[in-house]
């Protein structure tokens, strides 16, 4: 059949480094020859190509581009014949493991149209991970059982909302009322859709959804009985976030058991209906989502995952240093991917992997640590990685190229952990600005912890209207804070939280270091907080010690250089009756002491004010030329708690020229004072024209970049040396970004730039 444009698709496979790609291409060609004899459908294949990755490590993946030369079928029917034959042949012993992913053309390989809302009965639902391109390692499975007791599974594709919902109705054996659960999967979190197409009516069509994050599990909450009309449509039900699925009378799945899985398998009985769903799904998912047909093998590993993790913790970890233990935990805790691979490995291959780990740790700990973190990043990005093959390759690479990171002055490397209801994710050490505690104690024994929900959003989003909010927070957060976490033989305990961490749901943990310091002893060193009865205020005061600061000069607490004076007060508040404090949080510093601070911090100009932390004080210091010598004057209002162990003047920020804007309130006040509206309209028009001129005028581009971008990029020096700012693609992208950001803010928060 002639086509105006040939139909194309591609074949992807994941191979071991030593394997010959011809073994895969010859298997594909044999399948296509069978297809030609059976259906007179001829396919031409290209030479195998190495598939490029997007900056994240991937195993060696090859692809072949295929073109349908002749076909007796219409375009989409030809695709149907090929994919069914592909899934059928892949299950034959002669082709097992050789036929992996068949990826259709997203534009022409799927039918258009369809409804925006489709509800389908599921045969079963499973959770697991991919091992290579052809194996699904199944950890948990839920079947639809029509008899009592059991589950009824319903899958609803809300294409208009780009949302998938799975409803699980549980009929209990223990005579409890029927329980309804809900799993929600946004289309934006679907990275891959792999379809194992059914070849006969007795089999099921399996759709594997490779997800960025595990879907949130919710349970239906019964409305008050006082309601006159009880909702019957599931769209009108109330659901609360829960951490377990099922009941002990049937089967109980904890959140920790399910959350490590990145793949959801949906099994359907009616193939024609599901194909329509896939067609519509291909139109509603983002362009980066991969759709492929593959003959998948399902291997059960659920009962062995915990045993494998326990074996690693008890048997292997004691032979590794802490840094390697932490990196190995980062791989093993980044979902079930690596652990499932270890379970499915043959015994000899598993022993070789373990021996390699120990040998690599003895040879070069830094290279092994970087190799493990590289694998963790690949798993996080949902790349297909065979750990036992990848590790030796990456280790050899980092042995040649690894250089210990250089940390800037005033910074240190700190490890970070994300705690979710189902998982604990270990992140590589990141550069972090120093604070008072990190300067005096070993950052190697510190740990930054952030609490998130399973979709990596703040817990407050999903628990805001929860009917048992306190119990959920106690289970997810408080329990972790009470027990801490053990990694590589170190027991990390709760220390405190910085002010920014309190807003971001984070804390600091600390393990006993080489000098014997613990979280409790560090809190005593930080100061005396016993006089603060309010828990929230006490946490905020402790957070002062964790503000990101630069250490400048030392000012003795009990010498003549530091003086505490009363605040300037006056007047009375008409309601509270308290005096107004006109010097709240504002102290003074002499000129000579300020010059020493600037010299210590390598500041080119002496500022008029600095924001500081000093012992138990916080606030601003303004230069007072009348103070003689090295003098520091602090107010009563600046003292927040008692501290006698720190006498360093720590600087957070210095005064400097800043961009000034007129906001909605200032504009309203100025209009009330008689400023005409046309003045503000002219300012707005001038600001918009400035952005347009910046794309063609060098001087305007420089002014916009210096005003809105700032940073460390030397735009002025670049222009003085002949660099054309308005023509450079990167600089133009910066200008476009500034324009979009500023114009976007005007819709919700009008601001007019005030020219200096």
Automatic annotation (TrEMBL):
InterPro entries: RDRP, RDRP_core. GO terms for biological process: siRNA processing. Belongs to the RdRP family. The keyword Nucleotidyltransferase applies. PANTHER family: RNA-DEPENDENT RNA POLYMERASE, RNA-DIRECTED RNA POLYMERASE. One of its GO terms (cellular component) is nuclear RNA-directed RNA polymerase complex. It comes from the Eukaryota. GO terms for molecular function: RNA binding; RNA-directed RNA polymerase activity. It catalyses: RNA(n) + a ribonucleoside 5'-triphosphate = RNA(n+1) + diphosphate. Its EC number is 2.7.7.48. This is RNA-dependent RNA polymerase. Residues 419-745 form the RDRP core domain. Keywords: Nucleotidyltransferase, RNA-binding, RNA-directed RNA polymerase, Transferase.
């Amino acid at each position: 059949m002639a086509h105006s444009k040939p139909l194309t698709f591609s074949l992807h496979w994941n191979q071991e480094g030593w394997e010959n790609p011809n073994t895969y291409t010859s298997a594909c060609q044999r399948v296509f020859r069978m297809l030609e004899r059976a259906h007179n459908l001829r396919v031409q294949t290209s030479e195998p190509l190495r598939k490029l990755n997007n900056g994240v490590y991937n195993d060696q993946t090859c692809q072949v581009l295929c073109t349908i030369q002749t076909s007796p079928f219409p375009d989409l029917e030809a695709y149907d014949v090929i994919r069914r034959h592909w899934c059928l042949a892949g299950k034959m012993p002669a082709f097992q493991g050789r036929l992996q992913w068949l990826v259709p053309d997203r534009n022409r390989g799927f039918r258009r149209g369809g409804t925006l809302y489709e509800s389908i009965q599921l045969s079963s639902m499973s959770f697991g991970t991919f091992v290579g391109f052809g194996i699904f390692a199944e950890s948990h499975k839920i079947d639809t059982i029509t008899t009592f007791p059991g589950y009824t599974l319903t899958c609803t594709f809300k294409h208009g909302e780009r949302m998938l919902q799975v409803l699980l109705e549980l009929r209990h054996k223990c005579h409890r009322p029927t329980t309804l659960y809900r799993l929600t999967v946004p289309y934006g979190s679907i990275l891959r859709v792999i379809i194992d197409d059914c070849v006969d009516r007795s089999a099921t069509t399996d759709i594997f959804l490779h997800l960025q994050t595990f879907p949130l599990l919710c349970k239906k909450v019964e409305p008050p009985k006082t309601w006159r009309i009880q909702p019957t449509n599931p769209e009108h039900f109330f659901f609360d976030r829960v951490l377990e699925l099922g009941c002990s009378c049937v089967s109980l799945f904890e959140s920790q058991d399910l959350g490590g899985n990145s793949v959801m398998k949906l099994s359907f009985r009616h193939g024609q209906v599901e194909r329509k769903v896939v067609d519509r799904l291909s139109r509603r998912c983002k362009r980066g989502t991969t759709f492929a047909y593959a003959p998948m093998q399902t291997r059960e590993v659920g009962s062995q995952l915990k045993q494998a993790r326990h074996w690693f913790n008890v048997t292997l970890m004691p032979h590794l240093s802490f840094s390697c233990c932490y990196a190995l935990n980062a791989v093993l805790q980044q979902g079930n991917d690596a652990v499932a691979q270890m379970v499915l490995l043959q015994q000899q291959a598993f022993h070789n992997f373990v021996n390699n780990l120990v040998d690599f740790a003895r040879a070069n700990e830094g290279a092994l640590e970087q190799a493990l973190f590289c694998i963790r990043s690949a798993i996080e990005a949902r790349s297909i990685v065979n750990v036992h093959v990848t590790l030796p390759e990456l280790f050899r690479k980092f042995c040649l190229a690894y250089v210990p990171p250089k940390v800037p002055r005033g910074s240190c490397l700190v490890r970070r952990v994300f705690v979710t209801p189902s998982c604990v994710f270990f992140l590589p050490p990141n550069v972090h600005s120093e604070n008072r505690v990190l300067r005096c104690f070993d950052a190697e024994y510190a740990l930054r912890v952030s609490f998130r929900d399973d979709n990596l959003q703040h817990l407050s989003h999903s628990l805001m209207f929860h009917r048992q909010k306190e119990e959920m927070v106690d289970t997810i957060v408080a329990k972790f804070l009470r027990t801490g976490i053990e990694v590589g033989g170190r027991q990390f305990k709760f220390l405190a939280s910085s002010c920014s961490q309190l807003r971001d749901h984070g804390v600091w943990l600390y393990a006993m270091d080489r000098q014997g310091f613990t979280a409790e002893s560090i809190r005593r060193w930080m100061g005396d907080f016993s006089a603060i009865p309010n828990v929230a205020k006490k946490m905020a005061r402790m957070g002062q010690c964790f503000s990101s600061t630069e250490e400048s000069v030392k000012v003795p607490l009990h010498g003549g250089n530091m003086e505490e004076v009363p605040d300037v007060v006056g007047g009375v508040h008409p309601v509270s009756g308290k005096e107004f404090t006109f010097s709240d949080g504002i102290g003074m510093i002499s000129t000579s002491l300020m010059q020493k601070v600037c010299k210590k911090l390598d500041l080119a100009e002496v500022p008029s004010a600095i924001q500081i932390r000093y012992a138990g004080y916080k606030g601003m210091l303004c230069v007072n030329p009348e103070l003689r010598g090295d003098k520091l004057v602090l107010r009563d209002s600046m003292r927040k708690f008692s501290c006698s162990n720190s006498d360093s003047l720590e600087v957070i920020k210095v005064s400097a020229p800043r961009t000034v804007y007129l906001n909605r309130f200032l504009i309203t006040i100025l209009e009330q004072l008689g400023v005409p509206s046309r003045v503000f309209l002219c300012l707005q028009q001038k600001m918009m024209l400035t952005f347009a001129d910046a794309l063609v005028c060098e001087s305007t581009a420089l002014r916009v970049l210096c005003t809105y971008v700032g940073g460390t990029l030397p735009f002025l020096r670049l222009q003085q040396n002949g660099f054309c700012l308005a023509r450079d693609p990167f600089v133009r992208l910066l200008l476009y970004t500034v324009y979009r950001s500023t114009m976007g803010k005007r819709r919700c928060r009008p601001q007019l730039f005030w020219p200096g």
